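Help! Submission page says 'invalid entity' but I think these are all valid:
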Amino acid sequence: MPKDHGIGAPMKRREDVRFLTGKGRYTDDINLPGQAYAVFVRSQVAHGRIRKIDTAEAEAMPGVLKVFTSADFADKGGVPCGWLVTGRDGQPMREPKHPILAEGKVRYVGDAIAAVVAETPEQARDAAEAVIVDIEELPAVIDMKAALAEGAPLVHDDLGSNLCYDWGFVEENRAAVDEAFAKADHVTTLELVNNRLVPNAMEPRCAVGDYNVATGDHTLYTTSQNPHVIRLLMGAFVLSIPEHKLRVVAPDVGGGFGSKIFHYVEEAFVTQAAKVLGRPVKWTATRSEAFMTDAHGRDHVTRIELALSKDGEFQAIRTETHANMGAYLSTFAPSIPTWLHGTLMAGNYRTPLIYVNVKAVFTNTVPVDAYRGAGRPEATYQLERVIDKAARELGIDPIEIRRKNFIKPDQFPYQTPVAVVYDTGNYDATMDKLIEIADIAGFEKRREESAKRGLLRGLGVNCYIEACGIAPSNLVGQLGARAGLYESATVRVNATGGLVVMTGSHSHGQGHETSFAQVVADMIGIPEDMVEIVHGDTANTPMGMGTYGSRSLAVGGSAIVRATQKIIAKAKKIAAHLLEASEADIELKDGKFSVAGTDRSVAWGDVCLAAYVPHNYPLEEIEPGLEETAFYDPSNFTYPAGAYACEVEVDPETGKVTVCSFAAADDFGNVVNPMIVEGQVHGGLAQGIGQALLEGAVYDENGQLLTGSFMDYAMPRADDLPFFKVDHSCATPCTHNPLGVKGCGEAGAIGSPPAVVNAVIDALQRGGYTHVTHIDMPLTPARVWAAMQR
Amino acid sequence: MYNFDFVKPTTLQDAIAALSRDEAMPLAGGQTLIPSMKQRLAAPSVLVSLTGIPELKGVCRADDGAVCIGAATTHAEIARETAAIYPAIAALAGGIGDPAVRNRGTIGGSLANNDPSACWPAGVLGSGATIVTNTRQIAADDFFQGMFTTALEPGEIITEIRFPVPEAAAYAKFEQPASRFALTGAFVAKFADGVRVAITGASEGGVFRWREAEEALGASFSPEAVDGLSVSADGMIGDLHGTPEYRANLVRVMTRRAVARAQ
């Protein structure tokens, strides 16, 4: 019988009532008196020099308030980058200015050139079409390796190169790694592409700027995963607005997947335009704009080599990756292919020597940044694919070769050769569980049954590890982060015992309002409905870093625990006073403070009332009221890990891949709400399977986005997916946060692409297509069929 | 979307009159035209809805046995109404898009648009149907004239499609993964006097009849009859979702599957 409340209970999400009945309040639902509307004039060419922008006709059109160009932002900063990566040569990355509106040049299709603000969205759009932009089109660079070639057109002329940085990790290991390769019994090499993805959150981006001319206060309502980060970046670096005069609100947000972490130019635009015009200004992206301008994900081209002994022991890994930055550096872009990717290259294994080289490249495409998993899927995919290929080359079972190299349970904490220290884990246990839930023993029978229907069945298995709960601030500071990555919480107890928890985390699909309430309710022993979770508004939440990197429960939840512990400690003092007992003898259980060993007790609500009506109260010792704030800065990352299995059928006549089954055995440490965790895994799996089989952003050689709509960009749909078998029972709790939790938001998207691809290659190999050792994602029917043709 | 006038006549005569206005366009289910207008890629000054005209709607049986479908009949209604009398056409209609598309989109709109990846052109050409307009009757073989091009004159309105009912027929489509339009679809129909095979989605020339397959299947209406045939990739569509070679392969595979389904 599962628990019905508190930590560990599969409680239904309280937020779903409003989301499923149309009662959510999203940014586009916010309409302010006197609101005007912005429409952007966007570049239709990937690269060009702006000769002239003629706004006269547009400004004369009905309803137009103003047409803005870069001249209107001459005294404003560009959108900053939040992470400085240093190259192998010791030099900082090349960091171009990212202006709010294009200055002199356009650098990708969709780059904002001008913006019209008008009384209605239709008038703004009509006028935007009347803005005449004279552009001298320049040759575009789309392919990363071509962008690095001698004489390639420069995305940023002033930088002198399209290379953002050339990063080596761990640079000191390089010679030893090369030596290990020179001596190895066997080297397996794989060249692969981690396909570029369009995030496609259900809710397109939206921003509303408001300015109070009487007080000088700015407010920005925006579709963000981290309103405080936006306030800091936009206020300090772009518009020079002190934080106490700038409020950023991210209300209900319909999915982010990383794409709503970043500070976008449209946010700064509406904030400034509202001040200039003295009117609230709203911008809502069309779906076409979302495709063109939301930061894309992945887009790595990698060569990975694995050195092994003849019996399959991993000896060294060497990689070279080209990582696409797009035309400008998005907020966290430089960190994704480096610190969130290179540090995970040990995977679940004891490989002693690892060297990762990453060349980050500017191209005439929309910026690329974090997308669900962010660097860790790229690491996992190449590692688990090359292991599969090596196992096949050496004739070792793919599960056995992994087991042979696993870090064993008694080796934790485990120092990897790529900086990070895994605190805990048990990879054999999750693999055992996977073998059970995936019924791997029954595969051969299922394969024969598929063969009778003319279909090739394959089994793909892989492991993954991720670093979540980002991050220890002092560590990431050393690595180039220009921010701390703690999290905050204020717990406010009301006089009658209800609580409001104000968190710096932000929920945009993760169910925080439910699971965070479970944590607090469990700690105090009261029903969840006495706990309200407030997030998303810099005016009423403490400075927080927001939600990404599966960090909210591990970091934000820990801050809530700490603040609640402070509340409980103070409440015990009050209870001791009321009970005329020693504080040390007070116990809290089921919402009641008791004196140990007696039947004397006082209820939670009475203690809270005493705090706010302090007639009988130790005023000389403690202050009235019951409100506490905590900031939690983790001492390490968390390391969720697991083992995944996928079975596919390949139709040899058409190349079509059908996912027959997918099993996921995850170690998330402790789990607060197993129903939400399963939902997170399901969503992640859907995105990972989508990446493996369906999704891929494609630019043509001129930089036009060929996959600019759902007509050509294939999203996974329910009927593309099997029923998932998921398990998180093999838990090794995190050793360094108070809840023992690791994070579950990205695992599915990280662990699933290699399982799918491994399964397809397995199906083809078993079916006699032994020349097919790799196919790049997405494994569309056409690609699989083409690979099968000799 | 730009501004436009909208009229919804209730008779064919009124519709024809309305279509004579400057830059008027007929609107059937709007599954192509409305998205184009929303993207500002189409800008008619007048939209003349054809969905309020009773004589353009419904399914009936002619004296000669032909299944007659009003041009403004939705895919969903066709799927329901032809299930017993022409199941291959019902299956084709029931496999178009999703329920929202099927309850808005019409057969006449699809044919007049003649999207090279649409399903109806295969069903109509494969059945050897007759397209009836307000002025004449056009054989399917004469109607489709290349991608997005038909024999229709400006202002001419499709009123009805007449399908002779074959002895056996089936449609097999391989879906483009994103749009789920036909990457390649084959409609096969066996009549007393021969077999017709129509292919959609594959050719740069739009829907076409695969004569070699018709001949082979005329001799032996079995999936194996298609096996020995090869299809040239010349003139096949090449795009993100498939090379000309891939589509040529699908022509054979989908035809074979349609024949198997029709057995």
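Support: the input was valid. A stray whitespace character was the problem, and the output above is from the cleaned input. Chain A has a mean pLDDT of 97.
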